[in-house]
Amino acid sequence: MRILVAEDERDLNRILTSSLEAEHYSVDSCHSGTEALEYLESAEYDAAVLDIMMPGMDGLTVLKKIRQKKINTPVILLTARDSIEDRVSGLDAGANDYLVKPFAYEELSARIRVLLRKPAETPKTCYRVGGLEVHMDTHQVLRDGEEVKLSGKEFALLRYMVQNAGTVLSRDRLEQHLWNYDYMGSSNVIDVYIRYLRKKIDDGRETKLIHTVRGAGYVLKE
């Protein structure tokens, strides 16, 4: 999952970014509203954390602009102001949630998890495709009952694919959800990790689950 953190307090920005990365999110961060708007207009994010008071453009203005452009990224607003009027203004502008500083990181993390759930969806802890089981809470992966050991990045890739099972995912879309803008790896990095996953999940199995769609990308299906 890819998250944008827009917070002009650099220490807080660094803490939030590193904490989210430790939870295996891919994170982009910036320190002004102008930058935040550029990020949100140029990439697909699963959630954004926007401070209201930022230089260049405040968070409410950023929020209004992306909603006008039909960008529906879930947004949590951060602010030091705790009045009812401020909360109403944020929610009316299109915010999904509102968090007043100072706050515990654990609360922000929990609110992000809520935002990432699909509407009216009971959060799934296990996804199954054929003989593959991917457990979201424990990061355990099984193929035909046998445990498969994956690295953090391999699991993140498999998690995104199994959550979108049956959907053809382009290399660009996969890369956007796994790496941030600072990533300077090779252009075939997705192909490399797909090869790793195939070796661990499909090799020696009669039924292959990871398929290449020529010219389009990859799909996980029976």
TrEMBL record:
GO BP annotation list: regulation of DNA-templated transcription
4-aspartylphosphate: residues bearing it: D51
Annotated CDD domains: trans_reg_C (cd00383)
GO cellular component: cytosol; protein-DNA complex
Record-linked Gene3D superfamilies: 3.40.50.2300, 6.10.250.690, Winged helix-like DNA-binding domain superfamily/Winged helix DNA-binding domain (1.10.10.10)
Binding region for DNA: 124-222
SMART domains listed in its UniProt record: REC, Trans_reg_C
Pfam families named in the record: Response_reg, Trans_reg_C
Residues of the OmpR/PhoB-type domain: 124-222
An example Gene Ontology molecular-function term: phosphorelay response regulator activity
Segments forming domain Response regulatory: 2-116
Matching InterPro entries: CheY-like_superfamily, OmpR/PhoB-type_DNA-bd, Sig_transdc_resp-reg_receiver, WalR-like, WH-like_DNA-bd_sf
Keywords for the protein's UniProt record, in alphabetical order: DNA-binding, Phosphoprotein, Transcription, Transcription regulation, Two-component regulatory system
Protein function: May play the central regulatory role in sporulation. It may be an element of the effector pathway responsible for the activation of sporulation genes in response to nutritional stress. Spo0A may act in concert with spo0H (a sigma factor) to control the expression of some genes that are critical to the sporulation process.
Protein name, UniProt field: Stage 0 sporulation protein A homolog
Species annotation: Candidatus Mediterraneibacter stercoravium
Lineage: Bacteria, Bacillati, Bacillota, Clostridia, Lachnospirales
